[in-house]
């Protein structure tokens, strides 16, 4: 679209608000647009894309902005707009000095900047990931995290095949391709308005990242089983599990937030599923959970976490989270895993998952759990995927990385409950 001069000021204003990091950037952005109803759809898109570009590359843009003059937020806003709208689009609306500065910045090859600046990661995240990856891999991971995520769909097999969904999308003028790993996934080109697509509105498909879809195949629920989605949220994974069960058995969707479960209900209504039972709980120690102890075949624990695996979508998280906030999360993750494990029958399966990139929230939680629960064993994720005929080489754990798999960052461990060891007489 043609850029208007006032959009620079609006971008600068929103950016200043978002950079206070008093809440999620998407919520702050939505609130800003509600307060400015005269902004059109395209204008909102320009402003939001520029602000999120700054959040992704804040360290890099901050470094470049040091060479300019005037308001630092304006310089950052201009860099965001230059990346998303293009320098020629903003040239008519900036001063001669700003135009010269932008021309100077445009000639700088970001590949020549120090790796620490190019990664656009706070020191604590950089250090945690540098323990796992070498410099070349860190550069590749950072580049992937700093690029917006594609839009993935999961076909609802209760209502349609993947081929039928792709045909419906094509008829609506939307291009897509099959995801390489998830058998029901479709990756779209661009970010089309799905609410205008009849197949989407009729429940033929749901928005779900390919990495998230794979968690269901690790759990691999069967027809007629008793299954629990322990931290169901708005229910994306719940719906996937219900479809895998072919709407048979009983699938409990637990969550501590009524507002999140409320978002599940309209999605559930159009999914065609009749086996899902949303349940509001007060904590992982709720009496409703205790009543099901030892009765459940499979449990998914998509634990509350730092969310750093979703930086392509939520770049503000790397600036809002801290070592201290992660340290507060890990005891909760351990407690939720321990509580959820009590639901399982002998021979039952539990999948512990996060959308975190950090060892502290992933392997460390599982290793500590196994040390304290000798009646559980780790089932190699690679073996489970192979059983599901998914060609994705993995070791003991599922580890999905944006630069390697083009998905959000996901971790998962498959745990199986064993019979209690016989007590000595």
Overview of the molecule:
With 425 residues, this protein is an alpha/beta fold. The chain folds into three domains: 109 residues, no CATH class; 57 residues, Sun protein, domain 3 (Alpha-Beta Plaits, 2-Layer Sandwich), CATH 3.30.70.1170; 208 residues, Vaccinia Virus protein VP39 (Rossmann fold). It is built from 21 helices and twelve strands. Strands 5, 6, 7, 8, 9, 10, 11 and 12 form an eight-stranded mixed beta sheet that branches. The chain has a four-stranded antiparallel beta sheet with strand order 2-3-1-4. A hairpin with a 6-residue loop joins strand 2 and strand 3. Helix 1 crosses helix 5, helix 4 crosses helix 5 and helix 13 packs across helix 14. The radius of gyration is 23 Å and the shape is globular. The N and C termini lie far apart (79 Å).
